[in-house]
């Protein structure tokens, strides 16, 4: 019995979790948990502040990595074997369809959740000082997520995949000057073929996931360094007027912060030049609880709910697999993946304006948001204009996607979804 | 500026220049590495068979090559690209209206390949077709010709 206890102690090396010391040590002494603070603000963990969308996105990414590695065991990235392997996964491999479904639905889910997460961060004004740059990192994570979906889309090498990528990469070639070369570089050829499949595979399983992991680490680190999540909007207090100056390390500017009657400032606050919590008062101290179990239980439940949802979906909904890619025959209509259908809709009006200029401006505008919006207030009633603008942006995107998905028939003609087109143009 | 700062600055500049050029050269090398030196793709110039293989009237669609071969009784041969100039989908030639229709975003090209409708930015390409020594028709996709180009055999 003593030996068992000793072994356990040698692993965890902390006091019992019934003590506050043990709860703190659990976080401090564990390499995986110490991205959390030992204590968190209860109110910031409220579901209706963040909807846990960042966590859900991250957990979906974990599902994608595990199921993706499993799929790699049966997938050969060259035509036409790639398609044969998908058929095998569909009909021969034990649990093949289930794993493939999980990978597919988690991928769609990640696109949805990363977008919703961005909306949440915007609507709560959480991109404001000091979090401006974490928003920028977030925009890159959004782009990488789309890149992962796009490269993954080609891998089944069926008609859907082939034509979506043909159309998609041709959009890029409209970029002035370098467009054509960039496309050639991406495809490793002049059209979507063997070389393109291999390159998309390399991007999909090695390059892009590594970049997502790197940026996610930075993203989380900064969330932590900015004092955890932003304060829920309903908890914001009127700004305090008096400023105090604390600590002036050699050569550095002294740190000036809003006065607080109850708080003492720690060394890390002097080093970083900012208070760890946005505003701390006695009342807020009371609002603070240990990460164990409060934060960990919430995260675990979110993880379980995410995995369960994807599993249940994968039991009942099958990922599509069409005929083998046929470069000679374009399906009618040929549609890009749904999250690019807004783009395709724009492209159907003008390839240069809709396919290159509009998306480039959109990304630049997203990146610039925290630096354009200089209003320090996070209260909705102080930000009416920007909230409206962002809502228009979101709704415009959704409308375009809905039109592209449901209202476009053969020959990209406007056809309402309730009209059935018999024998489209061949 | 004394001797010491002068050396510090010059070494610093040299070092920085070395670093920047090393990164620049490496990046250029990576881009060149990714640009294939050989394309294992179908050749751009190829033979498609003898004139007798092509009936008059409706054009023949060659799947691999993505071209339409027209054989007119009076005017002879002409070859049109089947690749839509918008985003590269394969256009379909309708016998009913003698036009090319693109399934992807609805571009329509007239019989001479010019854009009639839709987002396509320019007309379909026409390729040079010649008679090779062995009596076969030879198409060269590198040589774009005006839509009036004909080969009389
Ligand atoms: C792979 C994609 C992403 C992952 C895995 C991810 C993950 C997370 C997580 C776990 C949090 C903690 C809070 C929460 O659950 O909401 C967070 C916060 C944050 N995220 Fe993301 N995120 C991603 C993409 C983005 C995007 C696209 C943006 C914006 C353009 C963004 C901006 C932010 C900001 C500013 C915070 C701090 C919010 C606050 O303090 O309230 N992230 N992210
Ligand atoms: S590819 Fe032909 S209309 Fe877009």
Can you walk through the features of this model?
Chain A has helices at 2-12, 20-28, 47-50, 53-72, 81-91, 96-123, 132-154, 159-172, 179-187, 194-225, 267-272, 282-286, 291-316, 341-347, 351-372, 384-406, and strands at residues 39-41, 243-246, 255-258, 288-290. In chain A, strand 2 (243-246) and strand 3 (255-258) form a beta hairpin. Chain A has 16 helices and 4 strands. With 426 residues, chain A is mainly alpha-helical. Chain A is globular. Chain A has a two-stranded antiparallel ribbon. Chain A has a two-stranded antiparallel sheet with strand order 2-3. The mean pLDDT of chain A is 88. Chain A has a domain at 39-229 and 289-375: Up-down Bundle (Cytochrome Bc1 Complex, Chain C). Chain B is an alpha+beta fold. Chain B has 2 domains: 1-40; 45-145, Rieske Iron-sulfur Protein, CATH 2.102.10.10. Chain B is 21% helix and 30% strand. Chain B contains 1 helix and 10 strands; from the N terminus they run H-E-E-E-E-E-E-E-E-E-E. In chain B, the strands form 2 sheets. Chain B has a 6-stranded antiparallel sheet with strand order 1-10-9-4-3-2, with no helix packed on it. Chain B has a 4-stranded antiparallel sheet with strand order 5-6-7-8, with no helix packed on it. In chain B, strand 2 (60-62) and strand 3 form a beta hairpin. The longest helix of chain B is centred in the first third of the chain and has 32 residues, at 3-34. Chain B is elongated. The chains are: A mainly alpha (426), B alpha+beta (153). At the A-B interface, helix 8 of A face loops of B. Bound molecules: protoporphyrin IX containing FE and FE2/S2 (inorganic) cluster (FES).
């Amino acid at each position: 019995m003593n030996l068992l206890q000793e072994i356990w102690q040698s692993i965890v090396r902390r006091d019992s979790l019934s003590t506050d010391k043990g709860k703190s040590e659990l976080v401090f002494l564990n390499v995986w948990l110490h991205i959390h603070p030992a204590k968190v603000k209860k109110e910031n963990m409220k579901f209706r502040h963040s909807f846990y969308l960042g966590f859900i996105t991250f957990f979906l990414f974990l599902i994608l990595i595990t199921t993706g590695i499993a799929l790699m065991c049966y997938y050969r990235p060259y035509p036409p074997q790639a398609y044969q392997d998908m058929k095998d996964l569909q009909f021969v491999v034990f649990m093949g369809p289930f794993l493939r479904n999980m990978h597919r639905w988690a991928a769609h889910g990640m696109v949805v959740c990363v977008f919703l997460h961005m909306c949440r961060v915007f609507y709560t004004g959480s991109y404001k000082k000091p979090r401006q740059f974490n928003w920028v990192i977030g925009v890159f994570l959004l782009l990488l997520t789309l890149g992962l979906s796009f490269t993954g889309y080609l891998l089944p090498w069926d008609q859907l995949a082939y034509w979506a990528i043909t159309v998609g990469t041709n959009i890029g070639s409209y970029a002035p000057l370098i467009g054509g070369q960039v496309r050639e570089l991406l495809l490793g050829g002049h059209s979507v073929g063997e070389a393109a499949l291999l390159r998309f595979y390399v991007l999909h399983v090695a390059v892009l996931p590594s970049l997502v992991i790197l940026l996610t680490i930075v993203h989380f680190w900064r969330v932590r360094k900015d004092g955890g999540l932003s304060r829920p909007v309903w908890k914001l207090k009127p700004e305090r007027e008096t400023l105090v100056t604390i600590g002036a390390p050699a050569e550095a500017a002294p740190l000036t912060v809003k006065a607080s009657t109850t708080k003492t400032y720690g060394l890390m606050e002097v080093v970083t030049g900012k208070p760890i919590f946005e505003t701390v008062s006695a009342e807020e101290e009371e609002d603070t609880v240990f990460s164990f179990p409060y934060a960990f239980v919430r995260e675990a439940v979110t993880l379980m709910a995410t995995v369960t949802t994807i599993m249940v979906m994968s039991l009942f909904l099958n990922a599509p697999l069409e005929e083998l890619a046929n470069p000679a025959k374009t399906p009618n209509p040929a549609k890009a993946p749904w999250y690019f259908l807004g783009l395709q809709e724009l492209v159907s009006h003008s390839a240069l304006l809709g396919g290159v200029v509009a998306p480039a401006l959109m990304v630049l505008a997203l990146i610039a948001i925290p630096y354009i919006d200089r209003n320090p207030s996070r209260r909705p009633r102080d930000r009416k204009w920007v909230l409206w603008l962002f809502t228009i942006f979101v709704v415009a995107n959704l409308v375009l996607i809905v039109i592209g998905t449901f209202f476009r028939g053969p020959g990209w003609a406007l056809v309402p979804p309730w009209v059935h087109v018999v024998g489209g143009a061949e | 500026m004394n001797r010491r700062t002068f050396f510090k600055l010059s070494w610093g500049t040299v070092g920085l220049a070395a670093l920047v050029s090393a990164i620049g050269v490496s990046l250029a090398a990576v881009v060149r590495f990714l640009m294939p030196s050989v394309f294992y793709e179908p050749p751009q110039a190829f033979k498609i068979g003898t004139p007798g293989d092509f009936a008059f009237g409706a054009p023949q669609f060659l799947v691999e090559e993505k071209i339409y071969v027209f054989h007119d009784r009076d005017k002879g041969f002409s070859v049109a690209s089947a690749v839509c100039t918008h985003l590269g989908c394969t256009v379909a030639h309708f016998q009913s209206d003698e036009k090319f229709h693109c399934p992807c975003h609805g571009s329509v090209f007239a019989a001479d390949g010019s854009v009639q409708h839709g987002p396509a930015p320019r007309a379909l390409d026409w390729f040079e077709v010649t008679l090779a020594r062995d009596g076969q028709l030879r198409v060269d996709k590198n040589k774009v010709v005006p839509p009036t180009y004909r080969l009389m055999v």
